[in-house]
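call fold(seq) -> tokens
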Amino acid sequence: MSQPVIQNSLVRIALLNAPCYGFGDVIFCKKIFEYLKDWYGIEADIFTTLPEAHINLGTSAKHIIGSKNTEDKNDRQCQTFTALEFPSQKKKIRYHLFFVCPLVTDFSPDRSDVINTFEHATNTNVFFFSEYNSSQTGIDFPTGVGWGKLGLLMTNHVKLKRLESLENPYSVIYIAGPQHVADARKCYRNFLMMLSRKYKRRRLDVVVPQWIAADAQKRFSSKNITLRDDIFPLNNNDMLSLFQFSEKDILVTGDQSITDVMSCCDDKNIFYQIADWKQDFARNLSKFMPNKFLSSRRTSCGSLRGVKYASNYSNFKKTWDFRTLGRPKMDAVVSMAHAVRVNVNFRMLSDWFDNRFVTLSFMKNAMKTGDLSSIKIFPQKGRDMSFNEEILWASVVFWGTLFRLFWG
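ret:
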């Protein structure tokens, strides 16, 4: 683990997480929480509509602040922050950074939504993370694959125990149903037909959601494939184990499911259910992985031409890892917050920007991805920043972005 570049007691961070019908949004926020802890020694607080989901992922309850008006499960989804009732004393805590992680595709970046909810949120300390390859504009951390994107939220591979309930060789289908994604039935059938051809000389279990098992009774039959609808739902660790010990061919949907498969294994043959709002993500995956089957919905869930497909995503993982692409920008933001915290001159400059509604994120978006990492004063892995280096780094970020914006 790299050494923290700041004193963790000086910067307090709030993560704002309002999922929209996706457990992946919770996992997204959990990964940002772990990055902050690993990189800077900061344990952020998480404001969320799904507190129990975060606790089930292993985050300490002392860092979870749930909204008070979401007892009805239908009220927990797709909410703005001004519509939520967090404890008033928690909203008054002096946080120095607010990260919306992620901003779901249903909404556009709106700092006033955060500023009107939290007493110490300002135009210069609120930042937005996008879902993968979102079309939203004004995003500070645009995650995903392709031009201008900051990569996927990869994690370190951890060896887990195989689920005892799965003794036979097995594959996995983990996709959304037809009420959420068009052609969901065609998607799973294409994958099962490919498996039937590939594994025709031996038996194979396929772990599926219950809706697929029920639907397949009328639409699919195979002598060598047994559908297992008794495994889901699983907690996150068991889900990672399921991916880790499966046969190479696997069919998933969702940002974090495909990221977790890649994080655990370089050589899984990943097939992907493409939702309408994920077509750009799929196209870029197809281009950069590369995986030609993901270029079209006709083949993304599986194809008879994919029977002999053999993948290796090791280079893709190295290239499109948020821990590489996104960290320089995160370092700049956290170092900036630290400089504003400890130096009166930077605090006055920050107030000046706030008073004129000029945001740091707007200036940073004028910079090309990767520019910050080229600044040689940034500390090397394995050693701390000195106080003077932190101030110098913050100075470079402040005045460099100003110069690029107004004179570049």
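Residues 170-319 form a domain with the Rossmann fold fold (CATH 3.40.50).
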